[in-house]
Structure formats: structure tokens, C-alpha cells
Amino acid sequence: MSLALRPRPGNGEPSAQRDLTSHLLQLPVELVVAIASQVPRPSQILASQSCRALRNILCDSVLQGEDRLPENLSREEQAEFLLCLSRGRPGEWVCEECMELHPAYMHDTPAKPMSEGYLPCFFPGFGLRQDLNVHANYGFKLNHRHVQLALKHARLAAAGSLGTTYLQRLLQPHHKRIRSRYTRRRLVDATFSAHPKVVDGRFLVKTTFDFREGHDKVRREYLGTVGLCGHQLIQASDVQGWRGQLSDSHNDLHPLYALLVAARAAFQKPGTEFCGRCEFCGTDFSVEASPERVTVRAWKDFGPEGTTYDPYWRSHASRVFSTRTACRMAGSIRELYGEDTGQAMRALGADSVPGSWIWVDGMPPYGVGRRMVLD
């Protein structure tokens, strides 16, 4: 597939004369061509769209008159190119399903997402790309376009070139009552909330599952199904029976059961907050339990402005546990969100890797220091 490029608004004779004052265009033409020949093809095409002078130089030499993306360019490179092309366009977002720029709609937010049937390419996410949606709980549906637009609007608003109306809508908190057989019988009252936030150019979301006593005290089986990410999940049957064996071949706790172990520790020691982290994606979580109230919180980092090929995003979207994994300091996302761990206790004694967000390939080793610590 070849993508035709649309010229940037405002390009013309006046802008070409303004660009003649740039340091790059003061260099000899042969040196500009030599520099341009060392960068990737998408970057060459983007440079040719910046002004008429560069377009004339690059199209006559490096691009040889062909200012279209080649058909053999990978989808990842096409997405990166379109993302760079739309950096200064707050009203457009990159659709990686059809590899086009789509207009943004003010009413399209994670708390009130627009029906995918009304998007220009018709049902994105049901074709080649299945990882455009990573979070859908109780009406809060986070699509990659929401993350892309929120980070772009935050960056442009910080530079003073854009208002914050749509950004505030994208970051609007979401609250929903949880409907289950336990809430319908009024045994407990349960709510779900999501609070998006942009911090240091990263898109963060804090989610909270809150269970309060109704006609009965909060029991473990009343939690129903609680999923914090694609890897950490507890169900009523798991909490009630604790799944029997919670160990791998090395007789150590498996990281997939981190949330389950934290919940068990919280019920064993009421009133104490136990924290943990998912070793397969950017998620910190905590569990605090008592007969009157159980609260499960998660702090999720969806990464900086980028495409769905970014490892931060893919760690949330992927359901294959042997893909790239985030090794980081426990509690780093919670602190980045602006909340201190306080007196929270760690339910897992997993060793941390020094630094923050050090990416490694494959699954982390399970053989060292992962037993539950309660004191």
C-alpha cells in the first residue's frame, strides 16, 4: 500500500522564504543531500514536506521525484511516519488499522467512547490490529487513539498553542456501579472508578474497585471477578479456594498470581494495605481488606506518545507472556502518578532491577526470592 502525502497547511512561497534563514539551508546543496541520504526514507519524506526549498532539493536527488511511501515499507514504519506527520495536528489521529489520519471528535473519550461503527474506516480493531483497545471495564474503554490524542493535546497545551477543552474531556474521571449477583442481592455495594492522568509526557490511569458491606460483611467470594490488566486476575472461585498450588516448578510463587497472593494476604491481615506489581506490564496495584470494605487499586502506565508498537503499550495489549517484559522498581508508577506507597506492605519479595523501566526479552526468572512476606 502506498500512502499519498498531503502538504502541510501554510506551505507556499512566504514559508519557503522564511525557511531560507535556517542553518540547514545555509549549507551547500551537496552537503544537505549527503545528510539526507543517511536518514530513513520516512524522515526524508517528512523533511521534504517542511518547506519548498527542501522539497526541491530532496525530490530532485534523494527521493528522485517520488514523495510517496514505498509499498514494501513495514506497517511499523508507516505508523511512525504518520505519527510524525500528525504531531502538530491536534484534530487528527493515526489509525493503524487502515494507516490513515482520521479526524478527532470532541465527544469521543474513554469515559464515553464513540461507537467504532461511526469511525471513517469502519470497525477499526477487527482487522489486522487486535491491540488497539487494551482496557474496557464498566463503560471505560481506552483506545490507543485516546492515549495518542491526550498526549498530543497535553504537549501542545503546555507549549501554549492549544486550549485544554478536549484534553479535560479525555482525562475526565469515570465512575460506575458494579452489577453482579452479590450487588443485586444487596449483600455488598461495589463501584468501579478510573482516573486518567498525563504526567511527564506519559499516559497514566488509576483504577479502583471498591466493595462495601451491604446486608452482609464483605467476604472473599463477594469480589467476583476483578481484572487489573491482561495478566493479573482474580475470580470468586480463585479467592475462595486459593487455587491450591500457587507455585511453579521451583516451588516459588508464580508472578501471574501476584494479585491473588496480595488479596490473600490482605484478608489474612485486615486493615493492612498490601502492594505488588505485574511483571508482564506497567501496572502497580494494592489490596486493602476488612469485613466492612475491600479496596483494590491499580496504577497503569501506557507509555509516552508513540504507536501501538511501543513496548509500553504492547505490554498491556499482549496476552502472550513470553513477549517483552517491563522490569522496573516496584511502586514506580504509583509514585509517578503522585501517590506515595506510605505504610503499604509488599506481598511479594521479588527482587527489583535497579533503575526504572529497564526492558529485557523473555519471561523473568522465577527462581529467586518470590515468597510472600507478611511482616
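(ticket continues) Second input and output from the same batch:
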Amino acid sequence: MAVTADVIGNAEPSGRPAAADRPVPPSRDPFFRAPSGFAMHTPGTILRSRTVELALFGIIPQQVTAWQLLYRSTDLNGQPEVAVTTVLLPKGAAPDGDRPLLAFQSAMDAVTDRCAPSYALRRGAVAPGSITQLEWLLVANALRRGWAVSIADHEGPQGAFGAAREPGYRALDGVRAALRFAPMGLRSDTKVAVWGYSGGGMASSWAIEMAPEYAPELHIVGAVLGAPVGDPKQVLLRLNGGLFSGFPAIVFAALRNVYPALAEVVDNDLTPDGRRMLDRMAGLGPIAALPLLVGRPMDRFLHRPLDEILPQLEDVFDDIRLGNSAPACPVLVVTPVNDQVIHIDGIDGQVGRYRDSGAAVWYVRDRLSEHFSLLPLSTPISLDWLADRIDGKPLQAPTTKTVWSVAFASAHWRSMVEMATAAMRVTLGLPLTRQAEQPADTAAGLAA
């Protein structure tokens, strides 16, 4: 492994070039080690950088220019920590100070570091069950538009899926690092867009909620939150014992390392089978983990009923609920009416709390989509809405619209073709190039 830059002078010994090595997960990668003295630096300070190769599913090389940045960030308790973001440009792109930056938060939804974007997106990565590897087919559309992209490991070194605030800190500090990284050619006033879906929508929510106080200098022009969870407690209770009961188990496996009250429940109330189950969930990607717990409620793994345990976890649930701080940027929320994973009541609540606190939120509810289909179907409207914010196009007053499908808007079709073209190029490992053209107004009539 070669460390190509180290701001504070603690480089690891160089071996073979990074491109020649099969990557190792972050827990075994010297690049991720915190250099001595890092805590003295301000959040977003780049501590170390390197070039990396990306590949679809770790196999098909991608025609992009990619670096990883290790930077100083902040954890849940306000303590200094290191974090990593993967920053991207279209292959061969020249530095351009007017280029916008997309902060994309992936639906990592896992404890294992094999699902961290910094690992899962790399050539040679082995990340079974990773959602991030599938999302790459969609994120590539931003590069096709000529944007720069930052994809932070927003769950941190412990895989704290579901934790409050710190995903926002890591995402925002990743943006700070990207803006300071000279090879990206960006400026301190670069326009920043924020996007994420499901678990990534939750992390994106934290980013825009924390930004007004934590990173007010960032020029965030808009955010799109897809099915952004809203109230995690409500989601966990609805999923418990059903088709997606693995999600509550993954969250318990993640947050036991963050919240002492949950660690106490694990220590005192979990059966031996329950402990083994959490350990197994912690080692798997979500797509691999979910089938193992279909129809198995948490009560099967507890010495006493879950209903008796929940009251001692209320402070945890209050902490991780979204929507209690007002984003300063315009926000588009897109969600399925019939979401089988995240009930629409929770999203309605998050939108309502944002609006009550003064945020400008445009809300689109899709009748025909479900949780997994809406991500690709909403990608064109999401990126086009962000493109309009980048271009400074005016917005009408915030609205709530319930539509049959975001795919039915005629202005949406050209962008759908562009998305299919980008996916084909990703799959074939071709350059993500496109002719210069005016962005489509696909959001017109839906969210503008």
C-alpha cells in the first residue's frame, strides 16, 4: 500500500502500488489508522490521501478518477476521530472551480466494514450483501453529468448504523476535505448537493440537520432524501418479526457499541442464541443478513418480552429520531406510499417536524412504487432537482404531492434513458461521458 499524501507527517511505509494490491477491509488497512496529533487539527483537515481504483462489484474496472481522503472528524460524543471519504471525478476531467460537488450517503445498513464504501467500491473488494455496490450504478449518473462526488464512510470505524448526528459530521467533514483537496480543483464556495436513499437518506438527513451549526460555511444548495426513515423506533417495531426483521437486529448489533443503555440490554437480556445472532448480523452485509431472520421476532432472543425492555431505551430512540433540527437548504423528500420497509407515517412525521421548524420541504409521495423500486425510479428526478438548485433556478412554494409514479412524468423519460445509458457504461466499464446539454426539468410538475 502506498500513501500518496500525509498532511501531518505520519505516512505508513509504502509497499507495492495501491492498484496492485487486493484491498483489505478498513479494520486491517494501515491507511485508516489515526496519525498521532490528528485531534489538534480542525474538522475536515486532510490527514492522508491515496489514489484508488474502483470496480463494479469489485470486478469491472470503472473509468473514473478516484482518491480516498483520511480526515479529522467528530463522533457522537463530540470527540475527535478519523473518517474516510472516497472522492471522484469523471475520468480525464480537468480541474474546474465551477464544478458542483455531490455528497452521496450510501445505504450501508451494516456493521461490517466490508460494506463501507471505501472498501466495497474498490477493485478487488469482496463485499457480499453490500447495497453500496448496487447503488454505484445510480451514483455514476452524477459523474456522467460532470459533477464531483464525495462518498463518506458515514457509519464510522465501528459501523454505527442508526446512530444520531455522527453520520452528518462525517459526511460534512468529508465535503470539507474534498473542497480542500487540490487535485479535485474545487473551491471553498463550491456548490454542494446532498443525496441519499433509505439508510443513506437517514445519513443525509443528519448531514443537513447538523450543517447549520456544525458546518455553516458550506454552500449546500439542496438535498434529496429518499425514504429517509423518519422515526427509527417506529420502523424497528413495524419490522420486528416480519419479512425484514433482520434490520432491527442489524441496528441492535450496531448501536450496542454506541449507546450504553442498549449495551446493558444486550448484556442482561439477550439469550446465548441472541448474542450469537447479533454477532452474526454484525459480520454480514444487509442483503446477506436479511434472509436469515425472516419471521423471527426479537422476543425469541430475549429473556423477557421486548415490550418490557423498550421503556429503558426511550432516550436512545429519542436521540435517533430525525426531524428535530431545521435544515437551512431546500429539501426534496421522495417516498413510496406503500413502503414495506419504512412506513410512510414516519416520513410524514419527519417532513412535518422540518416544516414546523421553518424548513422549506417539497414532498413527493409515490403510490405505485415500493421501497426498492423507488430508488432507481427516483434517481432522475433527484439529480435533476439538485441540478436545478445548482443552477439557481427559482422554486415555487413548498408542496406535498401524491402521484401515481414519478416515472410517469413525460419530462422524466429523457433522464431515465440517461440513467440506463450510465448503467450500461458502468456494467461494461466504459467512460462515463456525455455531450454537453441543458439539464432536463424532470422535477417540473412534481416538486418545483
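Agent notes: Residues 1-6, 9-19, 435-444 have pLDDT under 50 and may be disordered. The two ends are 47 Å apart (CA to CA). Closing as not reproducible unless the customer responds.
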